[in-house]
Model the fold of this input.
Amino acid sequence: MNKQDFINAGFNVIDGVNYESPLLKFIQENYPQIIRDNEIKLDELKSSLGLPVDEKVNGYGLNFIGRNVAKGKYRQDTDKVLKINTQFSRDFENTQNLVLKGDNLDCLKILKSYYSRKIKCIYIDPPYNTEKDEFVYPDKFDKEEAEVLGLAGLTESDMDRLEFSFKTKKSHNGWLTFIYPRLMIARDLLSSEGVIFISIDDNEQANLKLLMDEVFGEENFVGEIILQTATDNNPTQINTEHEYIICYAKCKVNQSDWFAKNSAAELIIEEYQKLKSKYGDDIETIQSALRTWIKKNEKKLPRVTHYDNVDSRGVFHDGDIANTKFGGYNYIVLHPITNKPCKVPDKGFRFPQSTMEKMILDDDIVFGEDETTLIKPKKRIEDAKDMLRTIIYEDGRSSTKVVDTLLGRGIFDNPKSHIIIKRLIDFCTDNSKDIVLDFFAGSGTTAHSVMLLNAEDGGSRKFILCQIDEPIKDNKPAYKFCIENGLPPFISSITCERIRRAGDKIRKEIEEKNTKAGMFSEDKQQIPDIGFKVFDLTDSPKLAVADNGQVSLFDNTELTPLDRIYNLIFKIGIDNPTTVPSEIVKDCMYNHGSNYYITNSIELDKPENRDLFKFALQNGRVYIDGWTATLNTTLQETKDKEDRGKISIVF
Done:
């Protein structure tokens, strides 16, 4: 295996180690005067942006020691790969939920290739940086690391200052440097309609708010929830009874004019005027003719039809005549699949007809499987203000009781409330396949909340959790719990076991409900996806050059061929990594859609496999694990440029 050999042979080589900044590339192409001798000329940059060049005052913003370290950490590629954990996984073949065990910064970087702009909701509960928690900056940082991050010119004094700032208890510098790169990747992962919630206390709330303004933009601040909890007596004589949940959107869109020109309402009104001219005050004839016209032209109209809002005076109202008995709006919405009128709420529709039409055209309405299920608006930031309050009371003892019931008393201290998190997820997701991410998973409350919400509304939301293998002290009840249950004594073991037992409880309750006498088959509740694929993070292969120029490969021999295939899928980022690839050649070639992933490519030299390789080239693209690849006969024979262009060697 030699990277240069493949390059010389003309193959496309994908190397995750080299980071190319899209911003730097953009500046080089469009504003070359800003860069001289590989350095940014700040005066040129300010001038290009229309800013004053000779500033006399400092700008507004959050400054902290380690900012450049944090940005370097964000850019730095991970040196970890994934290994399938069959012991902790449940229903690995079918589930679309993920649990990654390892440092969440590495986990987020691995997720980024495929999940960029795909996550709808992120909830995190990061460490609160208190004296009690003794938060210590966990990321590696030394002089060698500084050079890797591109932080040139740091003196011994600079290094000492950084180390002191990062390692001091309750260090704001260390905490901000820790959380900054993780938030930057979180923003990359959020979809355009995505939302992030962060639990925090007074120690870092103010700093976090300023940091979020920088990362997400203060215009995308949605709100701050004060979560009232149990009283905590402290020496200041002010009893702390709350913590915060800060909420930001990826792109907070202002409400626009809901009325759509050329909407069904306008077309129906136009037809009504024609009928009125023809039939005068004969309201029954007008209504009958209008129904016929709508039925005939329904395919040309949006999915809302409205034919009974002609009052006793013969005046047609554009959705503004209310159902006087209940106060709602009275019109018909056709189901997009069955083409039958959807069930009308007892109090009528909440929105006027023109508003409903615009919401359907904008895909802001959720339809059930058929017309018998009530429709509902998707929960978006701008039109869901009544769904969350800025002050919420939550008795923390109830959350502890839930975990105690599942795992045993005292196994996990101060777990987050599944009721609160479920409410947050419901606030910003619908019941489709939205993805929810928590990269400080803890006891697994977020996964539990997703499964409960899916069970309630029949949804198919997916969760992704990241949790570091934090050791549990041997004097803790959780340590004894792990040993008694044959689990490694790490917090991540508690995470997975809580999800497993919560899923069992949800399944049992649904099965019991479905077996009740008189239950019709169509009313039986579906069991949601309660499985999860678990991956451990482990060291990636590395190349080292000895003094004599000899190149050596340090590989992780624990990785199986299927592990390598999954790492290819994650790194390339084209195919969904939760879908199990099909095995074409044992321990060698796997298929995912029109893409083929190969490891141990020497297997391709076997006569029985050569035709399969040619078939793959003819029917899609081929990605080969560079760490196990050689320029064997089969690849050497791929002389045709067109075929060679379909092959990528991935390192």
Residues 254-263, 305-327, 381-386 have pLDDT under 50 and may be disordered. The longest helix spans residues 491-514. The domain at 75-253+390-517+527-534 is CATH 3.40.50.150 (Rossmann fold).
